[in-house]
């Protein structure tokens, strides 16, 4: 018997406060993997959700954060893997109008009443929303139409560094699935559904230079700035090194062979681009990011091509010396730069 | 009657605990001008020292921190200005073995028992040491041999930005003095007295770039790092701009006309350099700073020439994006760079 979605939607509408309360419960539980804050408690909470749904579930340990693994047998023919992540980014950005871990419902014009919290998007909201939907199907005494193999990881924001450990242990079960589904919201600010194409890889790394490693400049601590006259500066050296990596606009990467193996859009990609463009309102995307223009004032397909197919070299953060109020004359001994490369197909770390 | 210095030294030796206690009292009073911490309380403390010595003293207000001004009339023919500073740098460096504001006496091999504190050197230690000496002269019922005009400022670490206000008000009195004395320690780690030559000026400034000012890149907040493919990066742009300011080693300044008007060592300077070299143990200076080599492996006169006569462009601090533990993929909207130029004679801000 096919699923009666009308019944499910009615159930959701009637039980909205309870559904929202569950979203709030999850976003209130910190799980900030870059700061190792609340991560294991959140894993336990997710475990209780999966067992509550009726899945056979467990915490699968890795060398890092545990993966919550759950098998929901709906008695169906087909099985899909539901990939989820329970960790979030830090909450240190300025500009929060609400406590990012309070699970606050607040009016956000022009959208109306919204849940504003770290993880409300990307992706605790989507995770709990999917489970709410599963529970609603069961509450209307219907069957979930596929078996679900939940893989809920706690290191997505760290680059999923220990997920391969889990996968190699459970490869056989996972290979029995027909597809992988990652619940993720994809609307622009006008409410329009946005479709993208393809996935990039990431290599995250830090460049650090200090006088001890370099053999020039201060080795152990910052010294008085007047010494720049006779002492080399690791900061200046790093800036000169970084500057060789891009063109003057900071966009074209000038590292040797960086683009050499990168796959360019193939025939199928090029055919799909005009279809994708129909789902894409570039003004809405830029408004959301508070960005006046894309690189080179590109629009439509030209912009999508950059976003989907170009590898990048990005500086996520840079820190050296005294950065507090007013002045402190200092020749710093160390500089640290957090960088990432987004990889497109055929790029390899060894190229 | 000439001053009997033997009597003074004997008095100091006999009263060492009291002398040290006075040093401790002063370094325990915070006066961190870059953070505006304890500055005015410290000015009041200095005022009490000057009136305690018998000077006619007052707090002279400026648009910033007050100058403590004191006139000690010794009944002598000559007057000298004693320039002092009562403010210090922040205490945020790592590696403190003692609380920097606790005024701790501790063993520091190979030097023995030392007062280790923010301001113990540069220059609360020297300030209080000078006053201890003055008090010791009086305690031995002798006369201080010159009249003292104390000018004790609280913004040295901010570039003495409001000192000109004070000077223009008191120009006439100050011009009556025969010389200016700045009590300052000048020994290397072997105990050898070090003499330097000349004084540089400083211009301190911040370079800040954000997407709103630039017209490209994120305007209001950092966005997800994956957007680097289609959004310009203020951080990369700043790095490219900075890189144009020096040669690849970060030492030679390539800004147009930077060196054009800078005065090179004159005949008298060149005659003095060999004399200065006799007071200069370059290995000891480098050991103290934990620096293996001076720029270009220079030594002796060659190194002194750089230190004394070369203008510099230094980066005191740089900050952008996420700099906490682990990773956060971010395309930052803003970067801030704290820089200073050390000026030699004939350089002007307008050149």
**CATH topology-level name of the largest domain in chain A:** Aminopeptidase
The overall pLDDT average of chain A reads 94
Question: How many beta-strand segments of chain A?
Answer: 12
Count of alpha/pi helices of chain A: 11
- By CATH, the architecture of the largest domain in chain A is named 3-Layer(aba) Sandwich
Structural class designation of chain A: alpha+beta
Strand order of the largest sheet of chain A: 1-2-6-3-7
Q: How many structural domains are formed by the residues of chain A? A: 2
Superfamily (CATH H level) name of the largest domain in chain A: Zn peptidases
CATH class of the largest domain in chain A: Alpha Beta
Show the largest interface.
A-B, 88 and 88 residues
Cα-based radius of gyration of chain A, to the nearest Å: 24 Å
Q: Can you tell me the residue ranges of chain A where pLDDT is under 50 for at least 5 consecutive residues? A: none
Shape, principal axes of CA atoms of chain A:
globular
What is the multimeric organization of the chains shown?
homodimer
SSE order and pairing:
The structure is a homodimer of 351-residue chains.
Chain A: H1 5-14, H2 16-28, H3 39-53, E1 56-60, E2 67-72, E3 79-85, E4 104-108, E5 112-116, H4 124-139, E6 147-153, H5 163-169, H6 171-175, E7 179-181, E8 201-210, H7 211-214, E9 223-224, H8 234-243, H9 267-278, H10 282-289, H11 300-309, E10 312-321, E11 330-331, E12 334-343
Parallel strand pairs in A: 3-6, 3-7
Antiparallel strand pairs in A: 1-2, 2-6, 4-5, 8-12, 9-11, 10-12
Helix pairs in contact in A: 1-4, 2-4, 9-11
């Amino acid at each position: 018997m096919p699923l009666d979605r009308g019944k499910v939607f009615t159930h959701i509408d009637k039980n909205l406060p309870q559904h929202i309360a569950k979203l709030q419960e999850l976003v209130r539980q910190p799980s900030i993997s870059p700061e190792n804050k609340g991560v294991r408690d959140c894993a336990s909470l997710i475990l209780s959700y999966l067992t509550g749904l009726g899945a056979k579930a467990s915490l699968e340990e890795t060398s890092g954060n545990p993966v919550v693994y759950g098998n929901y047998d709906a008695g169906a023919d087909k099985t899909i893997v539901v990939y989820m992540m329970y960790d979030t980014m830090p909450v240190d950005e300025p500009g929060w109008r609400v406590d990012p871990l309070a699970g606050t419902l607040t009016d956000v014009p022009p959208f109306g009443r919204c849940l504003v919290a770290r993880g409300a998007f990307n992706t605790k909201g989507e995770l709990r929303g999917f489970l709410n939907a599963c529970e609603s199907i069961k509450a209307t005494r219907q069957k979930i139409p596929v078996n679900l193999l939940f893989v809920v990881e706690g290191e997505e924001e760290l680059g999923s560094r220990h997920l391969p450990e889990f996968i190699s242990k459970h490869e056989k079960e996972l290979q029995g699935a027909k597809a992988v589904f990652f619940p993720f919201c994809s609307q622009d600010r006008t409410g329009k559904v946005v479709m993208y194409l393809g996935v990039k890889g990431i290599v995250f790394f830090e460049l650090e230079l200090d006088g001890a490693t370099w053999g020039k400049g201060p080795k152990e601590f910052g010294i008085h700035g007047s010494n720049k006259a006779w002492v080399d500066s690791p900061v200046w050296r790093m800036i000169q090194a970084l500057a060789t990596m891009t063109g003057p606009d900071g966009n074209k990467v000038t590292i040797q062979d960086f683009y050499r193996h990168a796959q360019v859009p193939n025939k199928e990609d090029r055919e799909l681009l005009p279809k994708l463009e129909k789902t894409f309102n570039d003004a809405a995307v830029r408004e959301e990011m508070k960005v006046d223009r894309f690189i080179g004032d590109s629009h439509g397909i030209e912009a999508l091509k950059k976003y989907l197919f170009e590898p990048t070299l990005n500086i996520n953060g840079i820190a050296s010396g005294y950065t507090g109020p007013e002045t402190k004359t200092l020749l710093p001994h160390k500089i640290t730069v957090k960088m990432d490369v987004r990889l497109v197909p055929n790029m390899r770390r060894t190229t």
